[in-house]
Amino acid sequence: MLILGIETSCDETSASIVKDGNEILSNIILSQDVLHRQFGGVVPEIACRAHLESVISVINNAVVDAKAQLAEIDAIAVVNTPGLIGALLIGVTSAKTLCMALDIPLIAINHLHSHIYANNLEHGDIQYPTVSLVVSGGHTTLFLSESETKHIPLGGTIDDAAGEAFDKVSKILGLGYPGGPVIDKLARQGNRSAIAFPRSYLEKDSLDFSFSGLKTAVLYYYRGQDANVSQSKPLSNQEIADIAASFQEAVIDVLVDKTVQASHRYNVQGILVGGGVAANSRLRQRLKEKSEETGIPVYYPSARLCTDNAAMVAGLAYKKYLEGNSADLTLEAIP
How far is 89 from 80, CA to CA, in rounded Å? Predict the structure, then answer.
């Protein structure tokens, strides 16, 4: 069975054809990083215009790369929530139009759930239930995953997402956009214990996250208590690396501690990690160490499947299709 997936929830335009839920025949991802770099973050209007200009060619390239024909596609899958409303509408409208023209089923996909399924595209031995951590520029959410398609929210960010904090701290330090990869690389040269940045665990036993205070702590450390960069003392490259390493460690501590806490609380068979920050080398290292310590297996996708991509969308759609879970042409985008 061939499913065409479409992903336009934020700042990547992607289309993919996946066979039987796990064989990726094509996965086209068009990044918008260069468009948003000068602003230090995603500008919704720019993102939507870029999706509108490229979605047709991206879908066409996915079909060509898969050496398939549109007539061979059995269903169309599209992310309809969560995301930027304008961006979602472009993907949903494209998918509904194709379904109407080809007279094939439409399958609605939750963006966060698809990030979790990215693991199933590369790991065939996942046992459920699991605790699933989706950590990206827009989301930091813990789920209890009872199956590939059923995910119960356990906690989420109450302010900045982890990836958003990386981007903002990178902007504060003048390191560029996107912030995750550059801080991850720079932190390897720094001292993780150089600065005692705060770790916010919120109320006792809470599985929610908060990174806004940590971001502000970095701002005040770097620029002084009045946050005036013109009056702050110039820092050496090593001092900048120490800030990056200490900040990253504070984020990773909270992510790992709460994920492991949830895994013990719900007695799960494994831990799944997805989203852009799942590519962070320190997060992977710390979770691997915890896995060896606790005996709970940890899974994360390859770097290309951590970013927003349509292969994970089409793969999850196959499982939903088998359950008889499809949508109709009244499907709406939900931000």
Answer: 8
- How far apart are alpha carbons 27 and 5 in whole angstroms? 9
**Is 206 in contact with 155 (CB distance < 8 Å)?**
yes
From first to last of its 335 residues, what are the pLDDT tens digits of the chain? Answer: 999 999 999 999 999 999 999 999 999 999 999 999 999 899 999 999 999 999 999 999 999 999 999 999 999 999 999 999 999 999 999 999 999 999 999 999 999 999 999 999 999 889 999 999 999 999 999 999 999 999 999 999 999 999 999 999 999 999 999 999 999 999 999 999 999 999 999 999 999 999 999 999 999 999 887 766 655 668 999 999 999 999 999 999 999 999 999 999 999 999 999 999 999 999 999 999 999 999 999 999 999 999 999 999 999 999 999 999 999 999 999 99
Interhelix angle for 179-187 vs 281-294, to 10°? 70
Residue 267 exposure: Cα atoms within 13 Å on the Cβ side: 0
pTM of the predicted model over 0.90: yes
Report the Cα 131 to chain-centroid distance in Å.
16
CA of 241: how far to CAs of 5, 246, 280, 281, 290, in Å?
40, 8, 16, 16, 25
- Looking only at Cα atoms, what is the longest distance across the chain? 65
- When the pLDDT of each residue in the chain is averaged and rounded to a whole number, the result is 96
Note the residue count of the chain: 335
Beta bridge partners of residue 270, listed in sequence order: 130
- Residue 30, helix vs strand vs coil: strand
Tokens representing residue 202 in the block: 């919120």
Residues contacting 138, CB < 8 A, separation 6+: 10, 82, 83, 161, 163, 164
Structure tokens given for 31: 């990044």
Amino acid present at 327: A
| Neighbouring residues of 53: CB distance < 8 A, sequence distance ≥ 6 | none
Angle at 108 between CA 116 and CA 23, to 5 degrees: 55
Confirm if 92 and 80 have CB atoms less than 8 A apart.
yes
